[in-house]
Structures are given as C-alpha cells and as structure tokens.
Amino acid sequence: RGFSVKQMEKQIKKLKKQYESVMEAYQSRQDATITFEQLGIDRLYVDEAHFYKNLSFTTKIQGLNATGAEKSTDLLAKIQYLNEITNERGVVFATGTPVSNSISELFTMMNYIQPDVLERYQVSNFDSWVGAFGNIENSMELAPTGDKYQPRKRFKKFVNLPELMRIYKETAD
Fold first, then answer.
1. What average pLDDT does the segment 134-153 reach?
2. Which of 30, 39, 145, 173 could serve as a FRET partner for 2 with CA atoms 20 to 30 Å apart?
3. How wide is the angle at C-alpha 66 spanned by C-alphas 156 and 168, nearest 5°?
C-alpha cells in the first residue's frame, strides 16, 4: 500500500538478486551437499545478534538505508523456516545493543523475533510500524547539487513509546 508498481517491481528484482546471491554462495561451498532443512535444526541461538541488524526493508522515508546485507537476508530465511516448524519459537537472540544507530534497527530486531506480534498489531511493514511508533515531519533540505531546496520526510522522534516497549517485551528481556 502506498507504493507504485514500478517501486514494487524494483524491490522484487532486488530481493530476487539477494536470494540468488545467497543460494549461489551456498552452492559454491564444499559442504553444500546437505541443506539447512536436512540438518534437523529446530532452534537457533544467535549471539551478538546486532551483527545482523542490516536487514532489507521497503520504505518511503528518505534517509534510511534499506538495502540490507546478504548475511541478514540469509538469517531471516532460516528464521522464517524455523518459525514455520516451531510455531514462532525457532530463534533466540542475544545482544547487548539491539539499537545503536537507527530507528530501523528496532524494527529489524522485532521483524526477526516477533513477526507474528507485528502481524497481530498490523505493523508488519516498516512504514506502518513508524506510523504507529514514530513522528515523521516534513522539512526542506538543500539538494545534493546545492542549488535548490527539496521536501523531505524524516523520522524525528518516537511516539507511543510505552506501547512499543510493551510489545517488544512480549518476547524480549
């Protein structure tokens, strides 16, 4: 909702390229004779989970790096598989710094460990999450060329913080 067909096609193409890259890297390894699913893993413990905070997402908010890293995309695919076979109880994250640089990091952590909760509260995409828990303001900023000003939407602050923390603490400690 709120995205043009062209933007969605671009996002689909980008995601396909990321998944193809992950599969290509996987198949090039020597131990690729057995798949993740065949390993019989039913729980994944991720220590230093903040190393996986660079997950791709779609947004209309300028200034956020939404491209993502291959290792984060790979982890998300494994978590989604484990959540399917364990009724959303397939992963445990451990980190001392779930958020360090950007508001998108909290959404990313919640997207990994609480996809069912985000869906229940209808904030499973980044823009709806920010709409519920963030204040977006319009401002005029100097264009990169330096010759004119252009309108930009920027995240300014959190709102509904007690509700956000209550939701986050359903699965975080």
1. 86
2. 145
3. 60
